[in-house]
Amino acid sequence: MGINFLQPLFLLLLIPAVYVVVRWWQGQKQMATSKKMTIAIIRMMVFALLILVLSGLQLLFPVQGKTIVFVADRSASMKDDPRIISFMREAVQNKRADDQYAVVVVGATAAVDQPLTLRAEVQQLGVEINKHATDLAEGIRLAAALIPSQARGKVVLLTDGVATHGDAGRETQLVKERGIEVEVVSLQQPQGNEVVLTSLQVPQQLYAGEEYAISVEVESTIATQATLRLYEGNREAGSQRVQVEKGKNRYVFSQKATEQGFHRYRVEIEAQRDTSHANNQATAYTQVAGTPSVMIVEGHPGAASNLVSALKAGNIEVEVKELAMLPKELDAYKQYASLILADVSATQLGETDMERMRTAVRDLGMGLIMTGGADSFGMGGWFQTPIEEALPVHMDLRGKEELPSLGLQLVIDKSGSMTGDATGYDKMELAKEAAIRATSMLNAQDQIGVIAFDGTPWEVVSPQPVTNLSAIHQQIGSIQADGGTDIFPALQMAYDRIKSMQSQRKHIILLTDGQSGSNDAYDALLQQLTAENITVSTVALGADADTQLLEMIAQGGKGRYYFANDAASIPQIFSKETALASRTFIVEKPQVPARTGAGQWSSLRQELPALRAYVATTPKQTAEVSLISQDDDPLLARWQYGLGRTIAWTSDLEGKWAPDWVSWGAGSRFWNEIVAWTLPQVNEGTWKTQTELVGGNGKVTVSVPSGAAMPQELEGIVLNQQMERTVIRLKPTAPGTLEGEFAASEPGSYLIQIVEKGGGQVTASQTTGLTVSYSPEYGLTEDGEHVAKSWLMAGGGSFITTPDEVFGKELPEKWETQLVAEWLLILAALLWPLDVAVRRLQLPDQWWSRLGGLWKGRKVQRSSNTPQQEQDAVWTRLEEKRAKRRTQAQPNVDEPPKMNVGQPVKPPTESGRKVAAQQAEQTEAVLGHKEQNNADQAEGKQDETFNRLLAAKKRRNK
């Protein structure tokens, strides 16, 4: 054990502490020596304890056990090597009882698989991580963080040495500075026959009719025959039979740009001799300039036929798509300048389709127009969807106090089958989201009730006004799926509860995914419901639902029946049902729209025709409303959303609601102006953009044309296949060159929108892309052991080969520290009252005399003088007394005594010494007796004086 001081300079305070105690000692003339000695010792101890606390006194104990953290490389290149777990288990068998270990797994990221433990057996690895990259530096960093600062620690990596991310050498050096060793177990993987498609190059920009070449690069470890196939989108555009040589190979496809727009090309190679097929494809993008094209999606056939005719008359290219043919890739939307949804219901689209559309508008600059109809806006269930976010209007009605009130009762199946479906959706969570969305559409004068059922019904939300949405949503969120299914009792309870609601309209929505557990009399119950003007709609979720029963209930309840094969559509169905039940969204009131002045389209300056109906919405705060109704509802609204522009036309296109607008002479120009406003308005960037994969990152390089000014602000919006958005800032790296990087470890397509900004406005843009066809883990790599050796040498690490080296090697000594400041403070606090007691309490004099005698006795006990020395001491005292008497007897004290100069003083003989000693003792006894008599006389006088004073005091008191 040792000691250590965190602030050793504070020990210098001992000097002034000693000085203070000494000065105090010198100032105490009247205090008994024994008392002074006791107080001085106590105070010096208190000062010393406090100074030790300030100096940070620590007790040091040597650390006995070792702390080892294994870092297991589980990236794809390791192929789940079984040697990892066997090596760790054999190593742990050699550890001592006080040694501990942990296991960290690493891929693109690192995670703790097994925390620090003293257990003698390594468990099977179970934590899943992203295997498409290797970041050994992150693994070393996390492993070092698990090792306590005072532990004797070591990090042991089990890897092939190949890292696609991070600087493992630098991280090794950093942990080495902390006193943590880094060792590597090299587990090289066998390299088979590999043919890798490494690059696909396509010109970035093309013009219609232009001929161009597509370059393909292939790298191989063997010579073999192979077939190359080229795809434009999903259409095969060419193929070649090629001879692949060992090393690098290059092949060319000749093509002609026939279709304008944004195109994706993909090349695949099929080799006769190849080990892995995951690295046999590559993708690239190009833009073919030409006339912009508009995609129109109809909710039902003929919904946009009038619009198609008007746009074609204005020379705008139009493509009408069925809902089932919507693009399933984000880059496919880049082929179109604008998208029009004509009377489309949200229940006809999936959430992913809506997200693609919203992302294409916000980040790729595509336009969006929604037109009205019986299945559009709020009537189509678009409330709280990505499309509503992009449009300039809200789907619900806000601030409409005169609307008729609605009493809504939701009946939701909570049986065990609602936990999940084959597509991975949690049906119970989607049902709760649907209920929450439906309540959010209601106004303060409306009422809501929620019943959940399995074998028996449970009232989740009792009938109440929609005034405390947060509390209602919290109650809905508490529903948990379990139990069986019995519909009739739940429907009976819903009828009992909705009868008590004080509202003008009453509606029940029933959702279930199973068969009812009993056969009850539904007809009588439905007759009671319809007799009181209560409608019932049903939603059958999945093929296992009792579709016949639910359809019968909807017909008998004069409501609507929905079959939802996809659980993700439940929220849209509930939103649509809520809107339909209120019957307030469709406004049937013939009128001529009023102009507001916003949106100076020339066609709106003419006399406007009348319309008969529209879907009521609420304009967003920053939207521009060009046409409004007599009730101040928006009929035509627009705004900028991200890089794109969107428009809402709340009447229809077929002529049922606005026949005069269909026959209006300026109708074709009106719609051409509206669609043209949504087309991309920024210029195409003139710079040249190149993308490439560097390790696990995508790199974007922008080259500015010679003589052109450098952009003030250039950024890239990166969108992956999950439509996750990343914004990167492109920074100058050389004259006329700007670069930026983004994480691209996951295989897939990354669309990149390059945007130039000036004064806060977008001045130019350009779309490009990067496709990671396969993980870098599947590419051809160099010798992993050689790579590991290079960064180990840079960082100060080493290789090990056998498991017994893990715990067998000695590690640098480390010490555990124990702060004792609290104990020192407690001891000082206990001594301080003792100091006060010694100074303040009037103890009897004989106590101090005994204490003084004790000190003297100890001194005598410590003395080891001989008898001869004691006689010499007596002789010395006798001579001192004789000299004192002679001095007192001299008449002139100023005259010094006469001495025989030059004559040495002879020491007395042995007999003389004994006589002198006896005389000295007699003299001391006589003097002592006299001194004692004098002291007794003085004490007697004091007692006599005290008695006289006491008697006088008594006389006065009488």
Automatic annotation (TrEMBL):
Segments forming domain VWFA: 407-577
A Pfam short name: VWA
Coiled coil: none
Annotated Low complexity bias: 916-925
Ranges of compositional bias, category Basic and acidic residues: 927-945
Region (Disordered): 881-945
PANTHER family: BLL2462 PROTEIN, VON WILLEBRAND FACTOR TYPE A
The protein's name in its UniProt record: VWA domain-containing protein
Lineage, highest ranks first: Bacteria, Bacillati, Bacillota, Bacilli, Bacillales
